[in-house]
């Protein structure tokens, strides 16, 4: 297995001067200790208050050297951020195949979109599986699914201990509601992860209703990314809204419409154990809102695989991380929002979404694990 063990530092067309710089940087940089245990799930106000404060314990690890800004060197290689995203993993052979696929892609980080071990008491075993496949320090970045948010199939509070945040500058509560800019300096992508629609240890869902503190936190994180002129905004969560799968708008229509209104480039989810990728959607021009359970052609901004940056939002459910597949419903009223899909009953596959972002272009593709053949690809480009 040619995994990315020991290759976390992605050096693309790195000049000698930058190698020296990077070496010096790494020499002074110790692997992070695990984060301290969270003191339980915070209230919304606590989380909102924390949102603009850097987590002091956030480990500062390897940042991708930036050849494009290295003084005196022509920027032959574009700056880029490369990550994978998948949820609904489990601990079986398909989960391991998908992890092998991720390892082979050598991303800088992977977004784990919830539902990890599907078994109580197996957190360390799950983390060890990930570490064996991707390397002990690989940034396998967690947002909780419903199976661990309330602790019944493993506990998110334990998963964040054994797969801690590895990205510098992360803000918020890792595992539950956080964002990070990648790379930390001169970022290309802001990744925002939230947890609507699922129950936590107290039996309650976190409140992401319109204008709630968590809704406002999410909106502010998107707005600030735009204000900082970060080229790309990606929002991830376990639960979908638009869906042709088992679960429909669990994330809530208000939150979903807010993301579309703000033209978040890409929204990633799991929960449905399938792959479902929409066209680029936007409000305006006759589309006042996305209404779950219905289809409005006016909400489809671009229906081919080459889209314009800033024109709308693409939703991708990437729930083929290894857990047992769900069927897709091809008679679903929302199906015309979708460009392609894979499920138990159609083009069945396991695999991961693979995303590469440069300042002007975001390329995304579904990469099947060994034994699967389903593929998808789309591009969002500055035009
Ligand atoms: Fe799941």
Task: Give your account of this protein's structure.
- The chain is an alpha/beta fold.
- The protein has a single domain (16-381), classed as 4-Layer Sandwich (Purple Acid Phosphatase, chain A, domain 2).
- The chain contains eight helices and 16 strands.
- The strands form two sheets. Strands 4, 5, 6, 7, 8, 9, 10, 12 and 13 form a nine-stranded mixed β-sheet that branches. It has a seven-stranded mixed β-sheet with strand order 3-2-1-14-15-16-11, covered by helices on one side.
- Helix 3 runs parallel beside helix 4 (123-134).
- It is globular and about 50 Å long.
- The chain starts with 15 loop residues before the first helix and ends with a strand.
- Residues 1-75 have low confidence and may be disordered.
- Fe (ii) ion is lined by residues 88, 115, 145, 271, 273, 323.
Please write out the topology.
Elements: H1 16-27, H2 44-50, E1 81-86, H3 93-105, E2 109-112, H4 123-134, E3 140-142, H5 146-149, H6 156-162, E4 171-173, E5 177-182, E6 189-194, H7 213-227, E7 232-237, H8 253-261, E8 266-269, E9 275-281, E10 300-302, E11 306-308, E12 313-318, E13 338-342, E14 351-358, E15 361-368, E16 376-381
Parallel strand pairs: 1-2, 2-3, 6-7, 7-8, 8-12, 11-16
Antiparallel strand pairs: 1-14, 4-5, 5-6, 9-10, 9-12, 9-13, 14-15, 15-16
The structure holds fe (ii) ion.
């Amino acid at each position: 297995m040619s995994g990315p063990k020991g290759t976390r530092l992605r050096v693309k067309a790195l000049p000698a001067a930058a190698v020296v710089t990077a070496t010096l940087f790494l020499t002074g940089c110790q692997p992070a200790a695990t984060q301290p245990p969270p003191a339980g799930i915070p209230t919304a106000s606590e989380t909102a208050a924390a949102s603009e404060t850097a987590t002091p314990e956030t480990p500062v690890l390897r940042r991708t050297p930036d050849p494009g800004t290295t003084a005196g060197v022509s920027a032959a290689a574009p700056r880029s951020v490369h990550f994978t995203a998948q949820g609904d993993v489990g601990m079986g052979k398909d989960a391991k195949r998908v992890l092998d696929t991720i390892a082979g892609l050598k991303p800088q980080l992977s977004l784990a979109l919830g539902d990890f071990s599907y078994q109580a008491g197996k957190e360390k075993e799950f983390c060890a599986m990930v570490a064996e496949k991707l390397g002990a320090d690989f940034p396998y970045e967690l947002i909780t699914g419903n199976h661990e948010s309330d602790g019944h199939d493993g506990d998110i509070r334990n998963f964040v201990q054994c797969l801690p945040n590895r990205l510098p500058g992360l803000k918020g509560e890792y595992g539950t509601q956080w964002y990070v800019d990648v790379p930390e300096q001169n970022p290309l992508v802001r990744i925002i992860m939230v947890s609507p629609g699922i129950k936590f240890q107290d039996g309650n869902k976190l409140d992401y209703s319109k204008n709630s503190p968590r809704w406002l936190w999410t909106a502010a994180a998107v707005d600030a990314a735009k204000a900082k002129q970060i080229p790309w905004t990606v929002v991830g969560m376990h639960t979908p809204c638009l869906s042709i799968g088992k679960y429909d708008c669990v994330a809530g229509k208000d939150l979903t419409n807010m993301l579309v209104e703000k033209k978040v480039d890409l929204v990633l989810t799991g929960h449905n154990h399938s792959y479902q990728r929409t066209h680029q959607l936007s409000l305006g021009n006759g589309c006042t809102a996305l209404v779950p359970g219905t289809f409005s052609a006016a909400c489809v901004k671009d229906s081919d695989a080459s889209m314009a940056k800033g024109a709308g939002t693409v939703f991708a459910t990437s729930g083929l991380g290894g857990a047992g597949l769900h069927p897709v419903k091809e008679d679903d009223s929302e199906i015309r929002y979708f460009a392609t899909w894979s499920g138990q009953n159609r083009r069945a596959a396991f695999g991961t979404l693979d995303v590469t972002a440069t300042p002007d272009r975001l390329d995304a593709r579904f990469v099947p694990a060994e034994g699967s053949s389903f593929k998808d690809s789309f591009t969002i480009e500055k035009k």
